[in-house]
């Protein structure tokens, strides 16, 4: 069996360009996509001094942080947004901070935030 520690040391010494070339060679040899390895290579290179590119967030969670003293209006908006029943929407609002919607795109998150803030709620988008 190969000396794994020696392999780790050799891979750690690679430049970003060498790591990308290695990824292509392994992809061709094994017939698999090495997208995760290519993404990890710039991060490892970033530790050596370069700045890795930040990924743009594509999914957002809309978190209700408070009802702003207008609980009834906020419950109505939560029901309209989520399709929950009265009891479930009331429990969500009273249990804040809670997620109203999870995994939505940026535009939908902004729209939901505007709706809830219009009803008097305080909202975070993460």
UniProtKB/TrEMBL annotation:
GO terms for cellular component: cytosolic large ribosomal subunit. This is Large ribosomal subunit protein bL12. InterPro entries: Ribosomal_bL12, Ribosomal_bL12_C, Ribosomal_bL12_C/ClpS-like, Ribosomal_bL12_oligo, Ribosomal_bL12_oligo_N_sf. One of its GO terms (biological process) is translation. Residues 60-126 form the Large ribosomal subunit protein bL12 C-terminal domain. Forms part of the ribosomal stalk which helps the ribosome interact with GTP-bound translation factors. Is thus essential for accurate translation. Residues 5-50 form the Large ribosomal subunit protein bL12 oligomerization domain. Pfam families: Ribosomal_L12, Ribosomal_L12_N. Homodimer. Part of the ribosomal stalk of the 50S ribosomal subunit. Forms a multimeric L10(L12)X complex, where L10 forms an elongated spine to which 2 to 4 L12 dimers bind in a sequential fashion. Binds GTP-bound translation factors. The lineage of its organism: Bacteria, Pseudomonadati, Pseudomonadota, Alphaproteobacteria, Sphingomonadales.
């Amino acid at each position: 069996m190969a000396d794994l520690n020696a392999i780790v040391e050799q891979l750690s010494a690679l430049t970003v360009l060498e790591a990308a070339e290695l990824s292509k060679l392994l992809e061709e040899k094994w017939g698999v996509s090495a997208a995760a390895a290519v993404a990890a290579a710039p991060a490892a290179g970033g530790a050596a001094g370069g700045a890795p590119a930040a990924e743009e967030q594509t999914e957002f969670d809309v978190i209700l942080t408070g009802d702003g003293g207008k609980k009834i209006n906020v419950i109505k908006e939560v029901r309209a947004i989520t399709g929950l029943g009265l009891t479930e929407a009331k429990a969500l609002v009273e249990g804040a901070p809670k997620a109203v919607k999870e995994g939505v795109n940026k535009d939908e998150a902004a729209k939901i935030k505007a709706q809830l803030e219009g009803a008097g709620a305080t909202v975070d988008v993460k």
